[in-house]
Specification:
The complex is a heterodimer of chains A (302) and B (314).
Chain A (H helix, E strand, L loop, with lengths): L1 H7 L24 H29 L3 H5 L13 H7 L4 H32 L5 H11 L4 H14 L6 H5 L6 H12 L3 H9 L4 H12 L1 H17 L2 H6 L8 H10 L6 H21 L1 H13 L1
Chain B lengths: L1 H13 L3 H41 L21 H8 L1 H35 L4 H13 L2 H11 L5 H8 L14 H26 L3 H9 L4 H12 L1 H16 L3 H6 L11 H11 L2 H26 L4
Helix pairs in contact in B: 1-2, 4-8, 4-11, 5-8, 8-11, 9-10, 11-14, 13-14
The chains are: A mainly alpha (302), B mainly alpha (314).
Chain lengths: 302, 314
């Protein structure tokens, strides 16, 4: 937008200061020590409240059933026990659910990264008939909720004979419009001159894509990988619908079905199950937190 | 730069043998481009466009699970599914519940997210990352898993009511009281989603120019006035984005009631998604499709309303 403004309206005198990013760095008006202390106290209180459910979950997962039923509830476990976890590893086949969740997430991420960057490259840097239509379709479906498509999707999947297979759990998520949008926006920022130079040197489009585009897409790929992984790991409605045999359950499906069945009062086992579902993601988040929040900002701002 | 690229095609066209060459080149690029787009286009067509369209068509049929072997033989019933839906008290209840959840939940989440973002952006200089991680942690977790934990916290003599008891409040039996089950869902949703809004608002606040705020301060505008007259109006696009993101998620809430209340008590937490899922479970695919399209239209409408409200004026 500034590009069109700049040559035609060079008149406004107050303008020149704003484009430079420097003023943003200037210090905000200093606040009193008291005011800042209040903000710190409030924020600390809020963050403690926010995290209490997690602490409660971890503490509860190692309490005995008798202690969990005690009123008023105890905070720190009086008797420490692993029995809630051993239930998952013995009676309940957590290893299978875990493997299912990992396999589904892994292939969904890999497939999404490949498909979305390929089509993102075509949309950003190649001219072809129908390009606008494809991109418009992507934008339109950006907001389509899963609940709108799952019924016919189930019909398609059962027609293909894929009910209760990994394919059914993975394939529908490789066509994520958000990923296409993200990759297209990112690749568009890569200077054309770089590609032209390679083309003049006789590089094929595949070569340009694999050798120039992909290596430059690191940050976008990281963001997309994390968003896709989260979506897949926490996905619920579709796996609930399509994983109809127990050996295909993902972790959330197994946990939810266990929680609404006759075991709905096995609190310890349920809390241990939540621990097993949440902990891997929480660890990943703490390790890579910058990329997580960046992802939101990137998808948001662009 | 634009002049250069625009000139090039005509330049090649005037060269001897140019038009044919250019056309051939363009055709080649198209082939290459489609090769790149093909894997996506295929899965997009099969798993997104086709279901989206057939969901629409199905909502005008009496499609049942028994029709799967022969989907083309279903009978068209016009808008009967939709009229039946709106005469079905359970669906109307689900619709109202969803509206309740959205209308109360989204503003609450936005206010919490905005408050956190402002505190983190202006009030403090240290531990910013630690706070951000803390507030954002619920966002990354599985709703099913946290709903299991919250079901436990929300018991009549559970953690929440014990804490409320400290300040002399006798908390209700949250999940078994038709009046309180939905507020409990909203509480969980606000807790889980405020981190997203915090991050979005933090990014938005970065784009509010400090010099304008300082100029206003010099002119004697107080903190509140600066906030309502400068910061808030400049945050409109950010609010639009946050609102749209939230409404897509909030309108299709499903996991929370599935795990915590099974839609009860007395259908007080039954959402449209849950209703759709139940109809699917009964084998009424036509009804399920119609219900899901009502939801789709609701999402589109809500986004439009937000777009009009938060659109930058001028």
């Amino acid at each position: 937008m500034t590009v069109t403004d700049a040559p035609t309206t060079p008149t406004s005198p107050s303008r020149p200061a704003s484009p430079s990013p420097a003023p943003r760095r200037t210090r905000r008006p200093r606040r009193g020590l008291g005011a800042r202390a209040v903000v710190y106290v409030l924020l600390t209180g809020a963050v403690v409240v926010t995290l209490v459910p997690f602490v409660w979950m971890y503490l509860g997962s190692v309490k005995t059933q008798q202690e969990l039923l005690r009123r008023p509830p105890t905070w720190w476990p009086e008797t420490f026990t692993w029995e809630n976890f051993t239930a998952w590893f013995g009676r309940l086949d957590i290893a299978t659910y875990f493997v299912n969740s990992v396999v589904v997430a892994l292939f969904t991420v890999l497939g999404t990264l490949l498909f979305c960057s390929m089509v993102g490259y075509a949309l950003a840097k190649l001219e072809f008939a129908g390009k606008r239509i494809v991109f418009a379709l992507v934008l339109v479906t950006l907001m389509v909720p899963g609940v709108v498509t799952f019924v016919p999707l189930f019909v398609v999947v059962s027609k293909l004979g894929l009910v209760s297979t990994y394919a059914a759990l993975i394939l529908p998520f490789l066509a994520g419009p958000l990923g296409v949008f993200l990759m297209r926006q990112f690749i568009q920022e890569i200077p054309d001159a770089l590609l032209e130079a390679a083309r003049i040197d006789g590089a094929s489009e595949v070569r340009i894509f694999a050798g120039i585009i992909m290596p430059l897409c690191g940050p976008a790929l990281a963001t997309l990988a994390i968003l896709t992984f989260l979506g897949s790991w926490n996905n619920f409605l579709w796996p609930l619908v399509v994983a109809q045999s127990e050996d295909m359950y993902t972790l959330p499906v197994a946990l939810s079905l266990y929680s609404v069945g006759q075991n709905s009062t096995s609190y310890g086992v349920l809390l241990a199950g939540s621990v097993l579902v949440i902990t891997p993601v929480l660890l990943l988040f703490v390790a890579l937190q910058r990329y997580f929040t960046q992802g939101i900002a990137v998808t948001g701002i662009k | 730069m634009t002049v250069l690229t625009r000139a090039r095609p005509t330049g090649t066209a005037h060269r001897p043998g140019g038009p044919g060459l250019a056309a051939r080149r363009r055709r080649r690029t198209t082939v290459v481009a489609y090769a790149f787009a093909l894997p996506f286009l295929l899965s997009f067509a099969i798993f997104m466009v086709f279901p989206l369209l057939s969901s629409f068509v199905m909502s005008f049929t009496d499609f049942r699970s028994t029709d799967i072997p022969n989907p083309l033989a279903v009978g068209f019933v016009g808008v009967e599914q939709f009229t039946a839906l709106f005469q079905n008290p359970q669906f109307v209840r689900a619709l109202l519940n969803t509206v309740y959840f959205v209308v109360v939940g989204i503003p609450l989440t936005m206010i919490c997210g905005l408050a956190l973002a402002i505190a983190l952006n202006n009030g403090i200089t240290r531990f910013r990352t630690a706070f951000r991680v803390g507030f954002y942690a619920p966002v990354v977790t599985s709703i099913v898993a946290v709903a299991v934990v919250w079901r436990f916290i929300l018991q009549p003599d559970g953690l929440l009511n014990v804490v409320l008891g400290w300040v002399g409040i006798q908390g209700p039996d949250w999940l078994n009281d038709p009046r309180w089950a939905m507020p409990a869902m909203i509480l969980l949703a606000v807790w889980r989603n405020m981190g997203t809004l915090m991050i979005i608002f933090l990014a938005g606040l970065q784009s509010v120019p400090t010099d304008v705020l300082e100029a206003a301060q010099v002119d004697g505008a107080g903190a509140w006035k600066r906030f309502t007259r400068i910061t808030l109006p400049l945050l409109r696009p950010t609010m639009l984005l946050g609102g749209v993101l939230l409404s897509v998620g909030f309108l299709q809430f499903f996991e929370e009631p599935f795990v915590m209340t099974k839609g009860g008590p007395l259908d007080s937490t039954l959402s449209i998604s849950y209703f759709t899922y139940n109809q699917f479970g009964f084998g009424n695919y036509g009804t399920a499709s119609a219900a899901s399209y009502v939801l789709f239209v609701a999402i589109a409408l809500l986004s439009l309303v937000q777009f009009r409200t938060f659109r930058q004026k001028g």
